[in-house]
């Protein structure tokens, strides 16, 4: 087990979230993965906080989306998170843990359950809708149940993704500064190296 | 040579650009590529219009950035373009043509020159700055020349990327509609198939 220290980029990211918090989309970022046939894939997802006190980034998703297939085949992803008000970009690359209901680790299942209850009742309903990406049947609007027992635990389609960052590239377009952070592990202690680079 | 028709997703995209045009960042999107060692990479870039009357998407970039290495190794990319005001997402995947000053095709060199002169004098100056991504020297701010002859053609570092879309996944989070467009070529005629799918 490794000792972790709070990463220096984490405070920058928390500052950006704070200074852009008036914007609903400030918690949205783009997650790039690689498909099983070797093609780049990219989509918008929502930041669901850090895992406990760690540097790990949580994302909720539907087990039936292609990104699950991508990540099971090749578990690396890069987040690109652009803050439209402060003109800051974070590129965060790392390994993604896919935690669905079949996970054998009871701690991870607890995490998934916590993520489920932390999400709004409305967003929970999405996971009861028809298979994302499959052809819509007929012209009627998508049928989703209108309510769900608020005490009911995660449904089968609910999946928690946890990205463990190993490199962060921070760019500030107002100050024209760029810093690259990279994780180092020595004697089971994690530390972060940072370097100013040309923007 | 193929006959092209205006893609049905292009009008949707033009509408989104129009309805979000009050926002500076509406022309920004995220471009995912794959690095030579097989890792996903993702960064924000700026939309520089369509190539003439085609469906091809133009991006200006610096030859010295990693994305050039990525694309020369594996020329596929996926754009994720989220419009923050209209809540629409376009995922656009395709093949990318990397047009730098050494390109043997004179028509492509003309295109690159046009892209250079279409960009603002201020943005042209960026290409004269130090090597992006390399360590900054000292603590002084980045040195960039303060002016450039407005009639001077593209500098060596200037590169035009042209993405030729073959699939577009459109999602509207307000109407909860999603449409997948895919390109088909038959008898040298390009057409687009569209299908409503579950969001």
From TrEMBL, chains A, B:
One of its GO terms (molecular function) is pyridoxamine phosphate oxidase activity. Pfam families: Pyridox_oxase_2. SUPFAM superfamilies: FMN-binding split barrel. Residues 7-99 form the Pyridoxamine 5'-phosphate oxidase Alr4036 family FMN-binding domain. InterPro entries: Pyridox_Oxase (IPR000659), Pyridox_Oxase_Alr4036_FMN-bd (IPR024624), Split_barrel_FMN-bd (IPR012349). Keywords: Flavoprotein, FMN, Oxidoreductase. GO terms for biological process: pyridoxine biosynthetic process. Its EC number is 1.4.3.5. Its cofactor is FMN. Pathway: Cofactor metabolism; pyridoxal 5'-phosphate salvage; pyridoxal 5'-phosphate from pyridoxamine 5'-phosphate: step 1/1; Cofactor metabolism; pyridoxal 5'-phosphate salvage; pyridoxal 5'-phosphate from pyridoxine 5'-phosphate: step 1/1. It is an enzyme of class 1 (oxidoreductase). This is pyridoxal 5'-phosphate synthase. It comes from Tagetes erecta.
């Amino acid at each position: 087990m490794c000792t972790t220290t709070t990463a220096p980029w984490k405070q920058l990211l928390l500052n950006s979230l704070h200074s852009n918090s008036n914007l609903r989309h400030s918690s949205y970022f783009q997650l790039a993965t690689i498909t099983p046939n070797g093609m780049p894939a990219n989509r918008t997802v929502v930041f669901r906080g850090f895992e406990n006190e760690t540097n790990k980034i949580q994302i909720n998703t539907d087990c039936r989306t292609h990104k699950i297939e991508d990540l099971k085949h090749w578990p690396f992803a890069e987040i690109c998170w652009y803050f439209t008000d402060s003109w800051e970009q974070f590129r965060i690359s790392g390994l993604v843990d896919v935690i669905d209901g079949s996970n054998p680790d009871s701690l991870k299942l607890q995490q998934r359950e916590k993520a489920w209850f932390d999400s709004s009742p409305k967003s929970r309903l999405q996971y009861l809708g028809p298979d994302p990406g499959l052809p819509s049947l007929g012209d009627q609007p998508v049928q989703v149940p209108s309510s769900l027992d608020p005490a009911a635990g995660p449904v089968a389609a609910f999946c928690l993704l946890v990205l463990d960052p190993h490199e962060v590239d921070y760019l500030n377009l107002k100050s024209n500064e760029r810093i690259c952070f990279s994780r180092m592990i020595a004697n089971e202690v994690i530390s972060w190296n940072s370097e100013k680079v040309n923007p």
